[in-house]
Structure formats: C-alpha cells, structure tokens
Amino acid sequence: MSKEAMKPEQLISNIKVEIESLISLYGQGSEGQTDLGIKLDSLELSSEIKEQVVGLIKQAIEESTYNLLCGLEGSASIAGTQECYEIKDESGNILSGELDSLFYEQIME
After folding, report:
1. Is the distance from CB of 15 to CB of 103 less than 8 angstroms?
2. Which residues, given as ranges, of the chain have pLDDT below 50?
3. Quick count: other Cβ atoms within 10 Å of Cβ 82?
4. Among 32, 5, 7, which residue's Cα sits nearest to residue 20?
5. Where are the domains of the chain?
6. Nearest of 24, 17, 61, 54 to residue 69 by alpha carbon
C-alpha cells in the first residue's frame, strides 16, 4: 500500500501543530518537561507576565519559521545568500514553491 503524497498545505498545517504543541508545553512550565518551561518557572513570574512571555516566545517561533521558509523559497536571503531551494518528501514529491505564503496565510494573519 503506497503512502499518499503530502501536499504543501499539509506540511504547513503540521508545522502549525508543532508550534502550538511547543507553546503549550512551554506554558506548562516545568510540568511540560521542556528546558524552556523549567527556566520560565525558575523566574517565578506572575501568571499574567508568564502568559505575555509565552506569547512573545510564540511570536518569535512563528517569525523565525516564516523567515526560514522565505529563505528556502527564495523570497528572502539566509545569511546573505538568496536562492530557491527545492523541498521534497521521501517519495520525491515537491513541496516547495508556496510554503512561505501558505505559512503566512495559516499562521501569521
């Protein structure tokens, strides 16, 4: 039985799920069993400030992911080098070409 080819929309949706999972774990503090969550707890922030910090972490992850996707798609440079890269799944199906715009539509808006 052959595996169905992943579409670019599904890859971006999967990335979105991963970001949301990380943010949830960070927000749980040490209970989320992440180094960042443990460090957040050690700061002994009020719940309001902790929520704001986790929101900033979420924004940083989203912006850096978007910038990386733009760099891979060739719409921005990565460390001063600007070219298009081709992203394929293990079956050779091309996923790149619109990942940056799909990410922006699904996550950044």
Report:
1. yes
2. 1
3. 12
4. 32
5. 8-108
6. 61
